[in-house]
Amino acid sequence: MSADRSARLLSGLLLTAGVAHFAMPRPFDATIPRSLPGRPRTWTQLSGVAELAIGAAVAHPRTRRAGALAAAGFFTAVFPANVKMAVDWQDKPAPQRAAAIARLPLQVPLVLWALRVGRR
Questions:
Q1: Where is the signal peptide (predicted)?
Q2: Measured at the alpha carbon of residue 19, what is the angle toward residues 99 and 109, in degrees to the nearest 5?
Q3: How many CB atoms lie within 10 A of CB 90?
Q4: Please, are residues 100 and 86 in contact by the beta-carbon 8 Å criterion?
Q5: How buried is 47 (Cβ within 10 angstroms: 0-12 exposed, 13-18 middle, 19+ buried)?
Q6: What is the pLDDT of residue 34?
Q7: Using CB atoms within 10 A as the burial measure, which of 5, 50, 60, 71 is most buried?
Q8: What are phi and psi of 63, to 5 degrees?
Q9: Mean pLDDT in the chain?
């Protein structure tokens, strides 16, 4: 895959996720670790804004490197929310439980993808 296409796909993923945080915030609110101060919705909105800003940075060649490095950091930072989801969803139906658990190892390729985009 070309470097430009890879960057566009990463940008699209981040922008789509950012919009989803505002369009459907409740599932995201449920993943916010209780140890964070304040309301879960505030964290959902902040992470949505971060994804939109990072996605926009990755989209533009002049800011792509910084945006991609921010994406790698962001994907690492949200890992505790994914762990919380996997733990909280233990009594959900099997497909949802499997999806929550499958998200955990997917963070690694996302981080590596962002780092690769940042190097090109």
A1: 1-22
A2: 45
A3: 9
A4: yes
A5: buried
A6: 81
A7: 71
A8: -115, 5
A9: 93
Angle at 66 between CA 85 and CA 63, to 5 degrees: 120
Residue-wise DSSP of 46-80: HHHHHHHHHHHHHHSTTTHHHHHHHHHHHHHHTHH
DSSP 38: S
Alpha carbons 46 and 18: distance in angstroms, whole number: 9
Alpha carbon distance 16, 18 (integer Å): 5
Which single residue is written with the structure tokens 């915030």?
25
The letter for the amino acid at 71 is: A
Going by the DSSP 8-state scheme, the letter that residue 3 receives in this structure is: H
User: In the numeric block, which tokens belong to residue 89?
Assistant: 């969803």
Q: Are 54 and 21 in contact (CB under 8 A)?
A: no
Strand (E) or helix (H) holding 103: helix 94-119
Closest CA to 103 of 17, 41, 24: 17
Which residue matches tokens 């919705």? 41
